[in-house]
Amino acid sequence: MAKCDFCGKGVSFGIKVSHSHRRSNRTWKPNIRRVKAIVDGTPKRVYACTRCLRSGKVTRAV
Fold it and tell me: Which of 11, 13, 16, 53 is 20 to 30 A off residue 40, Cα-Cα?
């Protein structure tokens, strides 16, 4: 679910490193919103990241 339908941004994985340098796995989740957008001329519910919403890649349906 956590994937932008426009740019494909999804979950990325890495390692959390504490002050004492103990390492454990962690994830970074993108800021995904479920919005009503115009897709192929019709309003449709899609998942979009906030960067795509802000930059104008997504045309919001009112």
Answer: 11
What phi, psi does 53 have (nearest 5°)? -65, -45
pLDDT at 2: 86
Task: Say how far apart CA 14 and CA 5 lie, in whole Å.
Answer: 23
Long-range contacts made by residues 48-56, C-beta under 8 angstroms, separation at least 24? Answer: 48/4, 48/5, 48/6, 49/4, 49/6, 49/7, 49/9, 51/7, 51/9, 52/4, 52/6, 52/7
Distance (Å) of CA 35 to CA 8, 24, 53: 16, 34, 9
How far is the CA of 43 from the CAs of 23, 47, 48, in angstroms? Answer: 45, 13, 14
Which token pair is 2? Answer: 């956590």
Closest CA to 35 of 10, 12, 20, 57: 57
